[in-house]
Structures are given as C-alpha cells and as structure tokens.
C-alpha cells in the first residue's frame, strides 16, 4: 500500500471528504488532494497531523509498522508481564517461608 492509498483508506474509514481532512489538519483542500493522489508527499509536520486526524501512528501511516497503534498493543503486553511478575513474586514469597 502506498502512502497515498493509506490516506484514502483512513479517510474513507472515517467517512470524511478530502476537504474535511484538509480543514481538520489546517491545509488547503488542493494540497490534501495532491497528497492523496500521490503527486506530492506531505512534510513531516503534516504527516504528524494526518496521523493524529486518522488516529494511527505516523509509522503505520507511512507503512513502517504493521500495527496502527503500537503503544496500545505494547500496553497489553506490559500489563500481562506485570501481572505475571506479581503472581511469580507471591508464589516465591509463599514457598520461601
């Protein structure tokens, strides 16, 4: 998937028009059209605004990650690891007595 394809996909999933996205991130509709058509790549600040508008990571938007919200995925793993560590700690404390 190209960056332009990702822009189209996320915009469509949110039910927004190109003008809606442009207004949301503070650029001209013509500029957004050029990004979505693949004629131009947006600057880093615009990519960050688009990632925020589409509620995905900039890395995912650019095709650098496989998950749209890597921090959320990682948060579950961290919670599970902490719960396991606490269970193990209680077990060790119980057997040491």
Describe this structure in words.
With 97 residues, the chain is mainly α. The protein is 73% helix and 0% strand. The chain has two domains: 1-66, 434 Repressor (Amino-terminal Domain) (Orthogonal Bundle); 67-97. The chain has six helices and no strands. It has helices at residues 3-14, 18-25, 29-37, 44-54, 58-61, 70-96. Helix 2 packs across helix 3 (29-37). It starts with a helix and ends with a helix. It is rod-shaped and about 70 Å long.
Task: List its salient traits.
single chain; 97 residues; mainly alpha; 434 Repressor (Amino-terminal Domain); 2 domains
Low-confidence stretches: none
> Shape, please?
rod-shaped
- CATH class of the largest domain, named Mainly Alpha
- Provide the number of structural domains: 2
Most strands sheet:
none
